[in-house]
Amino acid sequence: MTFEELGLLPELLKAVADAGYTEPTPIQAQAIPVVLAGKDVMGGAQTGTGKTAGFVLPLLQRLARHASTSPSPARHPVRALILTPTRELAMQVHESVQTYGKYIPLRDLVVYGGVDIKPQTEALRRGVEIVVATPGRLLDHVQQKSVNFNSVEVLVLDEADRMLDMGFIPDIKRILAMLPKERQSLLFSATFSEEIKKLADTMLKAPVLIEVARRNAVTETVTHRMHPVDADNKRQLLAHILKTSSLKQVLVFVGTKFGASRLAHYLEKQGIEATAIHGDKSQQQRTEALDDFKSGKARVLVATDVAARGLDIDDLPHVINFELPHVPEDYVHRIGRTGRAGKEGDATSLVCAEERGKLAEIEKLIKRPIEQVVVPGFEPGAEFSGPAEKRRGRGGRTEKGEDSREKSSSPRREPRSRERDEAGRERREPRRVEPAKAKLPKLDFDPSKPYESRGSSTDTAAPEPKRSHHRPKRPVPALLGGLPKPEPETEK
Ligand code: AMP
């Protein structure tokens, strides 16, 4: 299959060739003809599959007939709306729109919170055909009457599962209610829970279902290990691992924004160059942190799941889970950037007694045990072998999901994960004491399925969490270093 065979316009073929793509990825091969035909799509695909070009290319082609060089705003109404959960993803998708649309004179704009709203307002008033936006900031523009949706022909909801996790569904519904009924809608999600299916029912008409597997190479070359350790010793163990290994470019995941800053600070004090990225950082701080990490100035990037989502880091060799994620799917997201293109990658998790339930769920999801390696000097106490407590709900999440949890915690508050994410697993003994460099088994996902969606799983450990229908409160500006418009971890 070639891009020519997909029937794309010469302007798009040229842009694709400039980008160096020789053939469409599976999701592109499937999605492009369907979107070109004007049909709705329910797409199961993750970042890394080429899904962005899968919807951006045909979207550009469908709108190309409206391309105009007229300066009149009336000639440039909003024709396509692409909603993403995070600023980083919005920026990335916008970049793709610019890359693939560079030979088609359509106007595009990215709209997200945490930055001055005025330039966005002015650009919207001048007229723009394609708007990539995070929901909160888009609604601010609606309130200001700087945007009008009467001419919207195509709606794209990217990473819908993440939107749900972040409590954005009420915002999405408000936006949906303002769009013309006659439109094309595309929904992409890595997982399909009942809630996502319900949302799809309300926004899609006779959608074509497109699902693609994760690239096999991503996971086949990733080794997984976990180090059992007492919660109080995690920081020291992390520093030990970083000091005694030659790991470069390590992405460390934590559960809370405050935890991210605190851990990066601790590592710095230990002489390890580290930086943190999370939603309380200004856009400029995030960009700087990412640049430092990419350039090697910072060896370690400590991130929350939300902040890391959509980060444009193509090839990352090492991921360390300082805390296990609240839902097992996030484990798969976290390691999604390692081991790409057949390169070796590794995912190391520091697991304390309270997290054994989460570990069990991850192992169930990835369908294999993760080897336990006790690091000498960091052996866990007897608590680790004791019976695990029952979990209170799926993933032990807070009502509002991961991001509202991060957002609502004041900077002095301890992460709630330990109080809430209790184990649902019976006894688990550390299997052996070995040096951390032991050769570990490789993960192999079933290539026909990205991974088992919790929503469709019949062996889900616990019921779905109740999610809030309110957007979480904004943090106090003073705590955020006097940002003009504080941006919570729930991206706007
Ligand atoms: P995405 O899943 O949309 O985030 O894309 C992941 C990466 O794949 C991006 O860096 C794209 O530039 C790249 N990509 C997208 N389509 C292709 C293609 N057909 N061939 C090679 N690389 C691609």
Notable traits:
Rossmann fold; about 500 residues; elongated; 2 domains; binds adenosine monophosphate; disordered C terminus; alpha/beta
Written description of the protein model:
With 492 residues, the protein is an alpha/beta fold. It folds into two domains: 4-211, P-loop containing nucleotide triphosphate hydrolases (Rossmann fold, 3-Layer(aba) Sandwich); 222-394, Rossmann fold (3-Layer(aba) Sandwich), CATH 3.40.50.300. Helices cover 34% and strands 13% of the residues. The chain is built from 18 helices and 14 strands. A seven-stranded parallel sheet has the order 3-4-2-5-6-1-7, with helices on both faces. Strands 10-11-9-12-13-8-14 form a seven-stranded parallel sheet, with helices on both faces. Helix 15 links the parallel strand 12 and strand 13 (345-351). The protein is elongated. Mean pLDDT is 77; it is low at 214-218 and 389-492. The structure holds adenosine monophosphate. Residues 21, 24-25, 28, 47-53, 314 line the site of adenosine monophosphate (AMP).
Under the CATH scheme, the architecture of the largest domain is: 3-Layer(aba) Sandwich
Task: Write the CATH fold name of the largest domain.
Answer: Rossmann fold
Total individual domains: 2
Shape: elongated
Beta strands, count: 14
CATH superfamily of the largest domain: P-loop containing nucleotide triphosphate hydrolases
Helix content: 25-40%
